[in-house]
Design brief:
With 385 residues, the chain is of the alpha/beta class. It folds into two domains: 4-14 and 272-384, Aspartate Aminotransferase, domain 1, CATH 3.90.1150.10; 17-270, Type I PLP-dependent aspartate aminotransferase-like (Major domain) (Aspartate Aminotransferase, domain 2), CATH 3.40.640.10. It contains eleven helices and 13 strands. The strands form three sheets. A seven-stranded mixed β-sheet has the order 2-8-7-6-5-3-4, with helices on both faces. Strands 9-10-13-12 form a four-stranded antiparallel β-sheet, covered by helices on one side. It has a two-stranded parallel ribbon with strand order 1-11. Helix 4 (100-111) links the parallel strand 3 (91-95) and strand 4 (115-119). The longest helix has 21 residues, at 40-60. The radius of gyration is 21 Å and the shape is globular. The two termini are 27 Å apart. The model has no long low-confidence stretch (mean pLDDT 96).
Length: 385
């Protein structure tokens, strides 16, 4: 029995064939350290990174590719934004649906004197922009918010909140780990100042890749998380103050970035709208198929177009970890169970501390796989009786 992989919110698999080919090509034909030497292979390695920035800029409607800092994941990008921007005495706003990649850095800053307001979301995981606006104080510095929950898939009204941030002169940082590549993102129209993204999910790149977009001018207000060798201004012992070198210390994961470029090329060639349409269809088929399963509870928005292809559920009377284990052992279905690194989100939707079973689909899943999953859930539900 072939594996059915429904854990794409953790990391996407399989990747487009072009990603594997590009990684192999880089290792065989380039392999040098970008920016550290003047020979042709070093120059070619640097070109790989710049070309990747250009592709990402095209995807997110970013004017200057050099405002994109390459990181090893969205978490690193969020840490750059949170620890580099906030100071003692600042006030910051976030939502109750955040991943620990936002919550934990904010809690660290809270211990350092930053005031934190967590806006409660409703039971579907949606925030009310009016509540965000009402939480703004004289010392509010920024709003940090997920674009879509990794638990419910609920898409936040980012454009509305971005408008509030711009009107109130606040920095707006969006965690796009769950949406980059599978949901339209326009940093200009959405008034996004900082956009953290990961490469290994819906951008179809390898793990160890990601980045953060920093709106021009904000780099002067955000301290680097890490300093060191950049290959530029090597004659001085101070970190360069220009983008993106200010935040890119140390040898980068160039082979991973090459793979990321191939993943982004795939997304651009298919189009985010086409990818989203297919994934929405998979969600609709699944949710329709389990609607009458006894004891089945599906969390989040019922409208597939208002969520990412993430579906969390429970079967009444059954432990989600046991359900996920049975899905793996009996049906070869790979899912994730538990808290999903988002305890606040589970408290919001009422599934803390046991968590949920989470299916997360991707462009490479099929309707046949969805049908098999529906059948598996029906069999597990019947066994409960």
């Amino acid at each position: 029995m072939s594996i059915i992989y429904f854990d794409n919110a953790a990391t996407s698999w399989p990747k487009p064939p072009e990603v594997n080919k590009t990684i192999q090509k880089y290792l065989k034909k380039i392999g040098a350290n970008p920016g550290r030497s003047g020979h042709r292979l070093s120059v070619e390695a640097a070109r790989v990174i710049y070309d990747t920035r250009e592709k990402l800029a095209q995807l997110f409607n970013i004017t200057d590719p050099l405002q994109i800092v390459m990181t090893k994941n969205a978490t690193e990008g969020l840490n750059i934004a949170i620890s580099g921007l906030l100071k003692s005495g600042d006030h910051v706003i976030t939502s109750s649906m955040e991943h620990n990649s936002v919550m934990r850095p904010l809690r660290v800053m809270e211990r350092r004197g930053v005031e934190l307001t967590v806006i409660p979301c409703d039971r579907e995981g949606l925030i009310d922009p009016a509540h965000v606006n009402g939480a703004v104080k004289k010392n509010t510095r920024a709003i940090f918010m997920t674009h879509a929950s990794n638990v419910t898939g609920t898409v936040m009204p980012v454009a509305d909140i971005g408008r509030i941030a711009r009107e109130r002169n606040l920095v707006f940082c969006v965690d796009a780990a769950q949406t980059a590549g599978s949901y339209p993102i326009d940093v200009v129209k959405m008034n996004i100042d900082l956009l953290a993204f990961t490469g290994h999910k819906s951008l179809f790149g390898p793990s160890g890749t990601g980045g953060i977009y920093i709106r021009e001018g904000l780099e002067n207000k955000i301290e680097p998380l890490c300093v060191g060798g950049t290959g530029s201004r090597s004659e001085v012992e101070e970190q360069p103050d220009f983008m993106p070198d200010r935040y890119e210390a140390g040898t980068p994961n160039t082979v991973g970035i090459a793979g990321l470029q191939a993943g982004v090329d795939f997304v651009l060639s298919k189009g985010v709208s086409e990818i989203k349409h297919k994934e929405d269809n998979l969600v609709e088929i699944f949710m329709d198929g389990v609607r009458d399963v006894p004891g089945m509870v599906v969390y989040g928005k019922k409208d597939a177009q208002k969520r990412t292809p993430v579906v969390s559920f429970n079967i009444a009377g059954m432990d989600p970890a046991a359900v996920a284990l049975e899905l793996d052992d009996r049906f070869n279905i790979m899912a994730r169970s538990g808290i999903h690194c988002a305890p606040s989100a589970h408290k919001t939707i009422g599934t803390y501390p046991q968590g949920t079973v989470r299916f997360s689909f991707s462009y490479f899943n099929t309707q046949e796989q969805i049908a098999k999953a529906i059948d598996a859930i029906r069999k597990i539900s019947r066994r409960k009786k």
